[in-house]
Amino acid sequence: MSEDSRRSVIVERTASGQYVATNARGGTLRFGTASGAGDSTAFTPVELLLAAIGGCTAADVDVATGRHAEPARFSVSVTGDKISDELGNRMTDLVVTFDVAFEDGEGADRARAILPRAVRASHDRLCTVSRTIETGTPVTAVIKDA
User: Fold this and answer.
1) How do the domains of the chain map onto residue ranges?
2) Class assignment of domain 44-135?
3) What digits encode the pLDDT tens for the residues 43-59?
4) CB–CB of 76/57 below 8 Å?
């Protein structure tokens, strides 16, 4: 793999149950655990996973349809069930629901026509996040020498 393909974030603890993720470009995102102290509106790691799925596929579909018309409404909902079983804690039954509308017009007609194809293409091959989840990939945990 080339260095151009490498992606990374650093997650640092800021308080009990509270964290900040920093990307290679210096952007930050604060989040926490559901039981963590502090802001109860902060996203949990599971909610960030759902947002990553929705954001990735929304971007794919927005680029494809946006070439033809600006949407009047564009919303993506991602839901799933958090379970604990013999395989451990995990999410099941993930569903991505698009709510997209376009005004009248020739460009809008084209955007509406390609919407199903754009959603399929994102799901089947474009969205890195959902493709990684569906195809599965090992996650290796290591402890850095102190």
Assistant:
1) 1-43, 44-135
2) alpha beta
3) 999 999 999 999 999 99
4) yes
Going 40 to 46 to 51 to 54, the CA torsion angle's sign is: negative
Task: For residue 9, give the nearest of 25, 24, 19 by alpha carbon.
Answer: 24
Tokens 């402890």 correspond to what residue?
A: 143
CA atoms of 135 and 65, how far apart (whole Å): 26
d(CA 87, CA 95): 21
What tens digit of pLDDT does each residue of 97-128 get? 999 999 999 999 999 999 999 999 999 999 99
CA separation for the pair 145, 140 (Å, rounded): 16
Q: Residue 138 to residues 66, 71, 112, 132, 141: CA-CA distances in angstroms?
A: 35, 38, 38, 10, 10
H or E element: which one contains 88?
A: strand 88-102
How far is residue 68's CA from residue 28's CA, in Å, rounded to a whole number?
Answer: 33
Beta bridge partners of 79: 95
CA 84 to chain CA centroid, nearest Å:
22
